[in-house]
Amino acid sequence: MSVSKPISDLDALIASMQPELQPGVYVFASLPHDAVFGGAGVVATFREREGMTVVMEEGAARAAGIEPLFRAAWITLTVHSDLNAVGLTAAFAHALGCANIICNVLAAAYHDHIFVPVDDAGRAMDALSDLQRRAGMLAASPKP
């Protein structure tokens, strides 16, 4: 598998973040630590003191009788972001906040993943694309 070099420069990250809306609906849920559940449809897990947080496909959660805490659309920023980069999360969270869209974020080894309310997916994509477009225009403008 060929992997691109991670980008850490904030301007370059924003200008090349390329948001991509993943198909489907996803849910956040909390399960007891000793819960037995299959990996079918699971996107992410995180162990907290209170329980095991799972992010999974809504259909798989429904089939397993798992009660959702939050229904979401999943947006992946396809740029290979460096885990040591500073400011990307703040930049896209600010853009979404200005559009009055909440977001839950998971940073993985290669990409950032943003979960927004299902009904706000289109507006979130517009806000992120606008942020990227503005950053690209700034990067292309001549420097004094």
From TrEMBL:
Domain CASTOR ACT: 73-130
Residue stretches making up the DUF2241 domain: 7-71
One Pfam family here: ACT_3
InterPro entries for this protein: ACT-like_dom_sf, CASTOR_ACT_dom, DUF2241
Name the record gives this protein: Uncharacterized protein conserved in bacteria
Upper classification of the organism: Bacteria, Pseudomonadati, Pseudomonadota, Betaproteobacteria, Burkholderiales
